[in-house]
Write a structure and sequence with these properties.
Blueprint: H1 2-9, H2 19-28, E1 35-40, E2 44-45, E3 48-49, E4 53-62, E5 68-71, E6 86-91, H3 92-97, E7 99-100, E8 122-123, E9 136-146, E10 149-157, E11 164-170, H4 177-194, E12 203-209, H5 213-229, E13 230-235, E14 245-248, H6 256-268, E15 272-275, H7 284-287, E16 296-300, H8 322-341, E17 344-347, H9 371-386, E18 388-392, H10 393-399, H11 408-416, E19 420-422, H12 423-436
Parallel strand pairs: 7-8, 11-12, 11-13, 13-16, 14-15
Antiparallel strand pairs: 1-10, 2-3, 4-5, 4-9, 6-9, 10-12, 14-16, 17-18, 17-19
Length: about 425
């Protein structure tokens, strides 16, 4: 299913505005409900402004014999993103001023854009430069660059609490695989897996944005709400390639998002590396900016800038696989299960150990015990010993080298017997009582 979706989405000419974004969101919306929201050109978002809307019908360069040397319809990376309309004949020297190549990757078409300065240009494989020998060339860019709208996508799943998990990806790059489509594909499969569940504690918000300008716009309108409600968030990008995982921390570095991601990666047994937050990257730059400092990291595979095909036509279908995409979906779902299960408890029996056997929580008879019984005894005794209202399930699980989500059942059993009290639930009940009074 993932690669079928990929094949439908890959040819679409996406940019920070335009019909390509709308079509992409419509296709992804077949898997999970995505609301499209439109914001007009000129909308101010902090220091930025939503630009004109850009759409392209055709673009090409022909030589003096009428042969097509560059064709947007063959690969949309051939046209510089946001190229203004142009029709005319140009000299070879003038064409070369508007022609972009990547000498270190002579077989690659580079990805070049000019969002905020009106210009035009084409991109071509460096090895093909010797083909441009004529004195004059016909250049046609049949595009619209005019007042319109920027489109963002948003999905939402309501849980039982007022706390929120944020997942954000971007839908503004044309035909590239790792650094674009892997993110929206994985995020949509996570959304699809969660959308019908009735047992979720957290609310889940899924954002599909044009990179940078989209997150700035969303923050300008909803930033205070996110600060008030988000417990953890992740930017989903570059998730379709590589054996290992990469986790980029939030700017704060010690948030629930960071703790849960590192805990799940450690327990997974998969190879991974950790990257400290830095201002090079994706929308975590905006979410973690000083005005918001949201608990947002990014769980990736091979990250942007760390593979040679980055931002070129060589970042294509051959680099990603259904298996790697699905493994990433599964890792995110394990992370979500950990966040869902995680709670902080306080032990209510503080004078010595409680007598567990009279509560059915410890065998009356000694002797041989099954591995399952031994594990449950370890979980139960550690929960009682370490539940001090400060350490959560992940902290206690770490003392046993277990996954935090695997402690949930033992903790709920102790709550049922009155030996643990959920700090969050108690706080919510006190808050509710205060409101009633």
């Amino acid at each position: 299913m993932l690669m079928d979706l990929f094949d439908r989405l890959f040819p679409i000419n996406r940019s920070i505005t335009g019909n390509g974004v709308r079509e992409t969101l419509h296709i992804l919306g077949e898997c999970a409900p995505i609301r499209q929201r439109e914001f007009p050109t000129g909308t101010v978002c902090f220091d930025w402004t939503v630009p004109k809307e850009w759409n392209v019908r055709d673009a090409y360069v022909k030589d003096g014999q009428g042969r097509t040397l560059i064709d947007f319809k063959a690969n949309n990376l051939h046209l510089m993103g946001y190229s203004k309309p142009f029709r005319g004949y140009v000299s070879r020297n003038e064409l070369m001023e508007h022609l972009y190549t990547k000498p270190d990757l002579p077989d690659a078409i580079p990805y070049v854009m000019s969002y905020y300065r009106e210009d035009w240009g084409f991109c071509v494989e460096h090895r093909r430069l010797p083909e441009f020998t004529d004195d004059w060339y016909e250049v046609v860019i049949d595009s619209d660059l005019e007042d319109g709208h920027m489109t963002i996508g948003e999905g939402f799943i309501r849980g039982s609490s007022d706390r929120e998990i944020l997942l954000s990806t971007y839908v503004c790059h044309p035909s590239m695989a790792i650094n674009e489509l892997s993110g929206p594909l994985v995020q949509t499969m996570i959304y699809r897996a969660l959308k019908d569940r009735k047992d979720l504690k957290y609310n889940y918000r899924f954002l599909y944005l044009p990179e940078t300008i989209g997150s700035l716009l969303y923050l300008s309108q909803h930033g205070d709400e996110l600060v008030a409600k988000v417990d953890a968030g992740y930017v989903v990008t570059c998730v379709g390639h590589g054996e290992a995982f990469t986790y980029k921390k939030s700017k704060r570095g010690d948030t629930l998002a960071d703790k849960a991601a590192l805990h799940v990666l450690k327990q997974s047994g998969k190879p991974y590396k950790v990257v400290e937050w830095n201002p090079f990257g994706s929308d975590e730059r905006q979410y973690c900016s000083e005005g918001f400092r949201l608990p947002v990291g990014s769980l990736m595979r091979t990250m942007y800038g760390e593979y040679p095909e980055y931002h070129t036509s060589l970042d294509n279908r051959s680099l990603i696989s259904e298996q790697v995409l699905q493994e990433t979906v599964d890792m995110y779902l394990a992370l979500i299960e950990t966040l869902e299960a995680n709670e902080t408890y306080v032990c209510t029996h503080i004078h010595g150990e409680p007598k567990l056997d009279k509560r059915g929580l410890y065998p009356y008879t000694g002797g041989t015990r099954t591995p399952e019984q031994k594990l449950r005894i370890l979980q139960t005794t550690h929960l009682i010993a370490f539940s001090d209202g400060q350490r959560d399930l992940m902290d206690i699980a770490e003392t046993l080298n277990l996954a935090g989500k695997d402690m949930k059942e033992a903790a709920l059993q102790l709550v049922e017997h009155g030996l643990l009290r959920n700090v969050r639930t108690s706080s919510e009940l006190q808050t509710a009582a205060g409101k009633r009074d």
